[in-house]
Backbone:
């Protein structure tokens, strides 16, 4: 029997790479979606996306340019006048790396593509348990968006949103990725536009804590020393 298709949102980071592995392990034929939205690390993320596609032998891929995020601004990832904050993992404040309603935009594009290619699922690597606290990374948000998709598409279109990492800590994601043999060395998490991970931004700090707690060495840890 032909496998059902799933659109997987793949940024090129460790979470989305693990999410892709989960979708494939669950028996779906993955079609992967990547957004270029003027983020600081656009080239690095796109490079990781392409390497992951090559690793998994994925042919169905869509790269969408949505540069309007830089016009909207409001995030240190899309506005170079706003400095990326150093990590403070004990803070309850949402860091300035939050891109307003980014997941809402990505999900809308994913839903459009899913309807065209006949996909029955959308996979997101968002997590709410051990993250930066972005409001569009909560399970309630995905539940509501799934309802909106199925209200706003053709009657025969039925799309389920899966967020398999939503309640996992970063350590849990690392452990799951390890079991699924995710090539973490191909991923990119840093928010800075550097050749090597900065190690001090929110995303780097969360990644490092996850690998440390999982007792696994991050293959990118010493990338700058090679």
Residues:
């Amino acid at each position: 029997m032909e496998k059902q298709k799933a659109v997987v949102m793949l940024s090129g980071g460790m979470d989305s790479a693990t999410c892709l592995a989960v979708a494939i392990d669950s028996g779906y034929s993955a079609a992967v979606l990547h957004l270029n939205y003027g983020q600081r690390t656009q080239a690095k993320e796109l490079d990781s996306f392409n390497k992951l596609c090559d690793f998994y032998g994925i042919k169905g891929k869509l790269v969408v340019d949505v540069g309007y995020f830089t016009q909207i601004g409001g995030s240190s990832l899309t506005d170079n006048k706003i400095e990326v904050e150093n990590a403070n993992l004990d803070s309850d404040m949402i860091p300035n790396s939050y891109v307003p309603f980014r997941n809402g935009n990505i999900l809308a594009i994913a839903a459009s593509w899913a309807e065209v290619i006949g996909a029955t699922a959308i996979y997101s690597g968002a997590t709410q348990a051990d993250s930066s606290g972005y409001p569009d990374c909560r399970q309630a948000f995905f539940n509501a968006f799934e309802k909106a998709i199925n209200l706003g598409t053709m009657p025969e279109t039925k799309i389920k949103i899966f967020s398999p990492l939503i309640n996992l800590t970063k350590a849990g994601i690392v452990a799951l990725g390890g079991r699924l043999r995710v090539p973490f060395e191909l991923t990119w998490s840093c928010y800075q536009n550097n050749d090597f991970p900065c190690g001090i931004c929110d995303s780097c700090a969360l990644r490092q804590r996850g690998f440390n707690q999982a007792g696994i060495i991050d293959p990118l840890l010493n990338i700058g020393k090679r």
